[in-house]
Amino acid sequence: MRRKLFLSLAVLGVLVMFFSACAYKLSLNGVSIPADMKTIDIQFFENNAQLAVPTLSQQFTEGLKNRIRTQTSLSILRGEADGVMSGAITGYSIAPVSVQATNSNTAPIAGASRLTITVSVKYVKYLYKDGKRTSDPDKILSFEESFTKSKDFTGDIASQEQNLILDINKQLTDDIFNRAFANW
What we know:
Elements: H1 2-23, E1 24-26, E2 32-34, E3 39-42, E4 46-47, H2 56-71, E5 75-76, E6 83-100, E7 109-126, E8 128-129, E9 132-133, E10 140-153, H3 161-181
Parallel strand pairs: 3-5, 3-6, 4-6
Antiparallel strand pairs: 1-2, 6-7, 7-10, 8-9
């Protein structure tokens, strides 16, 4: 009796693994991507923020592509793809987060400041029926939302800005990647 129960559970386990392997392709880092998704189009993220940093769009777009390239087996291409990621950098601001006391004859100065970057992202993952991409909106997985990250710093922004941008871009691309590929 025990032997039959053990064999039944073993067969059930093999069937569960087989069917789940058909539905999803799992990467080593725990990210799950539908098995029918092979390509993605990462469009250029323009900088629409009031404060413009000339290299920000290129750095962010390339950072997002690199994250997808290194963490998945998806091919990045331009044009018709299984998924499309687009958007814009909508916010770039520097604001004081603490005030440093000064003598009574001068205005207070910032003891620390915060650089904040906001990115608006639209992600569409097309589904397939009978080997053809569907145009039915109910058959398309997607999201459209904004992601905001910030980093505090002290002193002059000019000497630290590029490193702060790199750190914030990494945080943003991690959040966007996880939202797109870890919520299936």
